[in-house]
Each structure stands twice: as C-alpha cells, then as structure tokens.
Design brief:
With about 250 residues, the chain is of the alpha/beta class. The chain has 8 helices and 7 strands. The protein has a 7-stranded parallel β-sheet with strand order 3-2-1-4-5-6-7, sandwiched between helices. This is NAD(P)-dependent dehydrogenase (Short-subunit alcohol dehydrogenase family).
Length: about 250
C-alpha cells in the first residue's frame, strides 16, 4: 500500500492557495495549511475537516521557522511536499514606494520562501525525497507598472528555484515553480470589468481568450509535485493561457 503523502501549503485558506489545498486533498494528500488568520483556518477546517492540519503562524517571524518545521515533523511525520504560496502585494508607483514598504514585500515574498524551503529541505534530505513548489508570477517576466517590490521578489523566487534545484535535486528533492497568469476571482473579475481598456489588453494577448480558473492552477501544482513530474526540476511552468507568449 502506498504511503499517504503529506504536504505543506502556505496561505492555503484563500485564493490560489485554497484551490491548491482542495486539489491536494481530493488527490488524497494530507495537507498542512499554514495561515496568519485564525478565522480563515476555522473556515478551512469546516470545509476540509481531518483531511488537513491547521497551523496558525506568522511566517514573517523568520527566527521561529526552524522550530515550526521541527514541530510539524514531530506532529505529522515525514514532510513530502512544500508549496510556497503565501505572499503580499503592493500596488504603488516606484517613486512612491518607501524603503520599509519595499523591505516588507521582499521579506514575505522572498525571504520567507528561502527560510521555509531551507528548513523543510533539511527534513526531506533525510529521506532523499521531496518536492518543493514556489508560486511565481508574470511580474517576473514582464515589466508591469506599480509593482516594483513584488516584481523584484518574484524574479528572485524564480532564480532561487533554479539554484535550489541544482543544490538539492542530487539529494532527491525536486524544486520547481509555477507562474500563474490572469486567474479569475471575484476581485480580479470586478477589476477588469471596471477597466475595459485593461480587460481588452489582457484578452487580446491571451491566445486562449479567457482568464484561468483557480482549479487550473491547482491541477498544475498537483502535477508538478507528483511522481508524474519525477524528471522535472528547476522549471518555471506558466499557467497563463499562453499570455506570456501572446502577441
């Protein structure tokens, strides 16, 4: 009988994180959700029940991440999968971004991924197996206005993905990333509907002619951490309906 795999998904209670969590749970993966909001964790618990573990934790407290990972291993056993999904956004013209604001976005979207991946990799190396998946963004490819800090962080995430893959893949740990395109949510749908010019631009350069669904990101994440992707490492997979190659 195949052992049930255990995954960690940061920010797994809302948006793309929730879609990834649901996809994992439906595939029989026990999923540990790390989130900053007790309210969001309670809502997830009412939906997923004992198919998930629920950890209230502020990932910005980098010095506490080693103890967190130790406690997760003690509580849940072998850690097989890590999805670094949690992040924050800042929409502001570059000239108006303060050093503190820039530092905060880098800390959450870049430094947290490094620290958590490092500590989980220490555990995975003992078993010579594991899969780490980072969530990147089209901001790492395009020059998008008003997201300078987010762009810097996500570009770094893709670089770290390749560097981690080179160091850790010989030890049995695959490291990849996915870069979602324009994915539908109530918020994104409303934003585009209120800005017809931007909406037209999005759809005109997306060959598939539509926005993606969160479930499609979940499916891509499941593939990338599964044995079906056993010879893929250091890759960044666009899940964008062709937007990144659209003309």
């Amino acid at each position: 009988m195949t052992k049930q795999k255990t995954a960690i998904v940061t920010g797994g209670t809302t948006g793309l994180g929730k879609a990834i969590t649901k996809t994992f749970v439906d595939a029989g993966i026990f999923t540990i959700i790390i989130d900053l909001s007790q309210e969001n964790l309670d809502a997830a618990k009412s939906e997923f029940g004992d198919k998930c573990g629920y950890e209230l934790f502020n990932l910005a407290e980098l010095d506490k991440i080693p103890a967190l990972v130790n406690s997760l291993e003690e509580k849940y056993g072998q850690l097989d999968i890590l999805v670094n999904n949690a992040g924050i956004h800042l929409k502001k013209f570059a000239l108006d971004v303060t050093d503190e604001e820039f530092k905060r976005v880098i800390e959450i979207n870049q430094n947290v991924i490094f620290s958590l991946s490092r500590e989980v990799a220490r555990k995975m190396i003992k078993h010579e197996s594991g899969a780490i998946l980072n969530i990147s963004s089209m901001a790492a490819i395009y020059g998008i206005p008003q997201v300078i800090a987010y762009t810097a962080a996500k570009t770094a995430v893709e670089g770290m993905t390749r560097a981690m893959a080179v160091e850790w893949s010989p030890k049995g740990i695959r490291v990849n990333a996915i870069a979602p395109g324009f994915i539908y949510s109530k918020m994104s749908g409303k934003a585009l509907d209120s800005d017809p010019e931007r909406k037209q631009k999005v759809f005109s350069r997306t060959p598939m002619g539509r926005m993606g669904n969160p479930e499609e990101v979940g499916s891509a994440a499941l593939f990338m951490v599964s044995d079906a992707a056993s010879y893929i490492t250091g890759a960044v997979l666009p899940v964008d309906g062709g937007n990144s190659i659209g003309f």
